[in-house]
Amino acid sequence: MSEIYDIGYRHYDGPRLGRGHSTRALAVHSLRGIFGLGRTARSKIMPFSLFVIMLLPAVVSIAMMALAQQRGLPYSGFAVIMQAVVAVFLASQAPTVVAPDLRYRVLPLYLSRPVSIAEYVGAKVAAMTVALFLLVAVPLVLIYVGELVVDMPGPPATGEFLGSLLMALVLALLLSSFGLALASFTPRRGLGVASVILVYLLASASVPVIYETLRSAGDESAAAWAWLANPFWLVDSVQSWLFGTPPHSIEGAYPNGPASAAILVVLLGIAVLALALRYRKAASR
Amino acid sequence: MHILATEGLTKRFPTVTAVDQLSVTVGPGVTGLVGANGAGKSTLIKILLGLLPPSGGTARVLDLDVTAQGAEIRRLVGYMPEHECLPPDVSATEFVVHLAQMSGLPRTAARERAADVLRHVGLAEERYRAVGGYSTGMKQRVKLAQALVHDPKLIFLDEPTNGLDPRGRDEMLTLIRRIGTEFGISVLVTSHLLGELERICDHVIVIDAGRLLRSSAIGEFTQATQTVTVEVEDGLEPLAARLTETGLTVSPQGRMLVVKVAGPETFDAIRDAAVDLDLCLIRLEQGRHRIEDVFREEAAGV
Lengths: 285, 302
Fold this sequence. Notes:
The complex is a heterodimer of chains A (285) and B (302).
Chain A: H1 19-34, H2 42-68, H3 78-81, H4 83-103, H5 107-111, H6 117-150, H7 158-184, H8 189-216, H9 220-223, H10 231-243, H11 258-284
Chain B: E1 4-12, E2 17-26, E3 30-34, H1 41-48, E4 56-61, E5 64-65, H2 70-76, E6 77-80, H3 92-102, H4 107-120, H5 136-148, E7 154-157, H6 166-181, E8 186-191, H7 194-198, E9 203-208, E10 211-217, H8 218-225, E11 227-232, H9 236-245, E12 250-253, E13 256-260, H10 264-276, E14 281-286, H11 291-301
Parallel strand pairs in B: 3-8, 3-9, 6-7, 7-8
Antiparallel strand pairs in B: 1-2, 1-4, 4-5, 9-10, 11-13, 11-14, 12-13
Helix pairs in contact in B: 3-4, 4-5
């Protein structure tokens, strides 16, 4: 009586898709997790409020264009100017991508399925990269659409806009691989948040210290390299080299050219290596 | 046909040899893998999943080689780990759907399968709530559901009754038996309680310190080790003496007697002896063989 219908066990004979499908499913699942979708309302507060904060300058910029026929934020400088918000987003959300699987030992469930550990890490980095890219790119697109609609005098800054989109992607990749590597070293979320924000603060705070030290030693040109300790300025310097945009440093120009691009590639390599080592250890447990 | 077969399988870690020259074959149905903690059960499962390369020997699962075809094996096999492995902030449904997709099922199929499997393991409305608030029994069911969701040919269950109360334990064992029979999925289930596995397994493998102690059908097991425990209010000694007189093997264990069962006549002999001596019989229970009994026997036999 208690069982109203029991159709018994049914076997599954539908399609079984490849590892590409699984990796994509994991990336989408992680991306939803970053924005708190399918989770409690509380886990949506942080990502969405930061997202809204990122949109405010875009709205102001459009208003300036519409009312004063004046450009507000330059596309190329948007990420640098909004860097604190981007860094807080990275620090608060990177641990949600990697920490639970380590802390609650979900990783063995993934590894007992066809995906490899490299695909697992790849999907996580991809999800965080897409999230950060959306955070920076959506306001940029909004400003650009605003610019087209307002019909500013002179041609639209399409080149600068597209360049800034590409650099937003590069920045997102650099930040997410570093953020996830840092966050993956501790299974505790709080510590993950703290370690990411601490590294960002150290990187930013070290800039003026190194800069002043070298400048007082009379080495102006070497001092300029200090800017590149901050990931946002590093990416900006690569942008300045690739697209000829003005540097958005606080004072003075900084070196740009293949050297800063090389630093960026090396840093990416270090982050990927750290992730690989971390997860090789986690997988063998 | 063999579901899995190992040949001289060895796994050495820097300090210990977890699996030592293990050669064993497993057929379809429910197979128990028994061993004390640290006997190498979990290591063996990891090797069979293709996650840990063996130091020597070979192993084939569903006729696929564990070192070369790990990914294919993991597509057809389910795994329920011993430890907790559920994130607390997602619902059982969302989690099981996600893991079904990770096993290669398209999204709609994953949803259907997850709903089906969660029903089979006995999770009703609570499957929409976050896993963090579940009892141990419910968590074990979710763990089992994720191992079944992609309709595997074979599942590895590592200590599925761990931490369950007697009722939960019974339900879990019944469910495992159903998986092996009704669902038609072969099962390799580990436990350190032989008595538990006797109820559900067709075949039992006993390992100790990574070596094979014994591998036989369940029938041979119970025949070799069948005992009955007798408890009486007073007069344990006279009863023991009387039973020994009639030619039974009797060993006192605290306030109880363990009598080796020679056949159905043994039960009659115990009953008659109790009646003759005018004793108050409290308990007559079929012996639960503990893993130690098997170890003792094997050690004596070697």
